[in-house]
């Protein structure tokens, strides 16, 4: 028993908390299975690594400020045939992040843009990639406050730091001149340095009116689109599909 406690203390001193916690259980299992010393050690270390990966995932997810958790497995590609599932699966490899490329999901409300954005963010986090998720309204509100408090440069660095910045819901509210300029500064600062994944319900031709400045809108789009993957989603709203299937909204499903 003394040797067992010494071993547990040594594991704790080395920071192997999960291994220390599971030591008794693994020793009990080993007494019945009679594994080799190396097999026993590897099993104990595997448990420690799995727990650390789980904790790291939880921390990275919290720091990403995701509004909810969705995965690609939750997404009904059959409901949105306009989406190239193969392209989405390719994006999920995160090669675009290593290349500092951008992803733009365009389409009307409810077609799954935000779901896909969150799902790709979750995949990035699982691969150890730093992510920050923010709606456009939150981004502008945050930077506008920093601007009035003369700390804009410091605050913009928050949006430069992550390898993947997700900006959701572009197009729901018009920009004033300051908001358009603040958005430009973020896009410009990340250009060819970090990836942006954004969702918008506006076509690119509408961005000039949206921002109240066609020249600035062109400058923003020039940087966003230079290295980018554009996914245009055309289909029905997920939020209304159950009503559509029952005929309560639009035509009932024929399937």
Automatic annotation (TrEMBL):
InterPro entries the UniProt entry points to: AAA+_ATPase, ClpA/B, DNAC/IstB-like, IstB, IstB_ATP-bd, P-loop_NTPase
Pfam families (UniProt xref): IstB_IS21 (PF01695)
Listed SUPFAM superfamilies: P-loop containing nucleoside triphosphate hydrolases (SSF52540)
Gene Ontology MF annotations: ATP binding
Keywords: ATP-binding, Nucleotide-binding
Record-annotated AAA+ ATPase domain positions: 99-231
Entry keyword Nucleotide-binding: yes
One GO term (biological process): DNA replication
Membership in a protein family: Belongs to the IS21/IS1162 putative ATP-binding protein family.
Record protein name field: IS21-like element helper ATPase IstB
Source organism: Brevibacillus aydinogluensis
Lineage: Bacteria, Bacillati, Bacillota, Bacilli, Bacillales
């Amino acid at each position: 028993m003394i040797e067992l406690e010494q071993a547990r203390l040594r594991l704790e001193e080395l920071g192997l908390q999960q291994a220390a916690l599971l030591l008794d259980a693994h020793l009990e299992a080993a007494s019945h299975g009679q594994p080799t010393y190396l097999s026993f050690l590897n099993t104990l270390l595997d448990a420690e690594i799995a727990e650390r990966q789980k904790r790291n995932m939880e921390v990275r997810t919290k720091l990403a400020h995701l509004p909810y958790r969705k995965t690609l497995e939750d997404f009904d590609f059959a409901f949105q045939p306009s989406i190239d599932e193969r392209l989405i699966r390719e994006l999920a490899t995160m090669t675009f992040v290593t290349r500092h490329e951008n992803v733009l999901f365009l389409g009307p409300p409810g077609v799954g843009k935000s779901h896909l954005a969150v799902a790709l963010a979750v995949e990035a986090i699982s691969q150890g990639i730093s992510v920050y998720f923010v709606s456009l309204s939150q981004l502008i509100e945050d930077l506008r406050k920093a601007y009035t408090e003369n700390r804009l440069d410091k605050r913009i660095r928050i949006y430069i730091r992550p390898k993947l910045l997700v900006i959701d819901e572009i197009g729901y509210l018009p920009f004033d001149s300051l908001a358009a300029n603040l958005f430009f500064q973020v896009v410009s600062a990340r250009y060819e340095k970090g990836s942006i994944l954004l969702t918008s319900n506006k076509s690119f031709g509408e961005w000039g009116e949206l921002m109240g400045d066609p020249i600035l809108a062109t400058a923003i789009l020039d940087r966003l689109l230079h290295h980018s993957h554009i996914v245009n989603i055309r289909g029905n709203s997920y939020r209304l599909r159950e009503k559509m299937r029952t005929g309560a909204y639009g035509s009932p499903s024929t399937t």
